[in-house]
Write a structure and sequence with these properties.
There is one protein chain. The protein is about 65% helix and about 0% strand. By secondary structure, the protein is mainly alpha-helical. It has one domain (about 15-120). Helix 1 runs antiparallel to helix 2 and helix 2 packs antiparallel against helix 3. The longest helix has 28 residues, at about 15-40.
Length: about 130
C-alpha cells in the first residue's frame, strides 16, 4: 500500500472550516453593521460615517454571507471584492480609523473564496452524450 504524500483530514473537514469562518465573519460584520446602523438611524449615535445607509450595507453583507453559506463562488468573490473596496474607501477617508478586525475578516473572506474555488474545481465535468 502506498501512503499518500499529503495527509488526508477528511474526518476533521479542515478545508471546510475556511468557508465556515468566511460566512460567520460576514454574519458578524452584518450584525454589527445592522446594530450600529439602527442606532444611527434612531439618532442615538451621531458620528461621521454612521447613518441609515449602514442598513443597506448590512443587508448586502447578510445576503453575501448567506450565499457563502450556500457555497456560492460568486457570492464569496463578491464578498471579498466588496470588503476590499470598502477598506480602500475607508483608507482614503480622513475621518475613518484603521481596524484590525476588518483586515482579519478580509483574510477569512479570502481563504473562504479560495476554498470554494478549490471545491468546485475538483468536481467532474459532465461529458456530452455521443449519439
Amino acid at each position: 500500500m502506498n501512503a499518500p504524500s499529503e495527509p488526508q483530514f477528511r474526518s476533521l473537514d479542515l478545508p471546510g472550516k475556511h468557508v465556515t469562518r468566511a460566512w460567520i465573519a460576514a454574519t458578524i460584520s452584518a450584525g454589527l453593521t445592522l446594530i450600529f446602523g439602527a442606532l444611527a438611524a434612531a439618532g442615538v449615535i451621531a458620528a461621521p460615517g454612521f447613518g441609515a445607509w449602514m442598513l443597506i450595507d448590512a443587508a448586502i453583507l447578510a445576503g453575501l454571507a448567506y450565499g457563502v453559506w450556500r457555497h456560492s463562488r460568486v457570492c464569496a468573490l463578491l464578498l471579498l471584492v466588496y470588503s476590499i473596496a470598502n477598506e480602500i474607501y475607508l483608507a482614503l477617508d480622513e475621518t475613518a480609523h484603521f481596524s484590525l478586525l476588518r483586515v482579519v475578516f478580509i483574510y477569512f473572506y479570502f481563504r473562504g473564496t479560495i476554498q470554494l474555488f478549490r471545491e468546485h474545481r475538483g468536481r467532474a465535468v459532465p461529458q456530452p452524450v455521443n449519439t
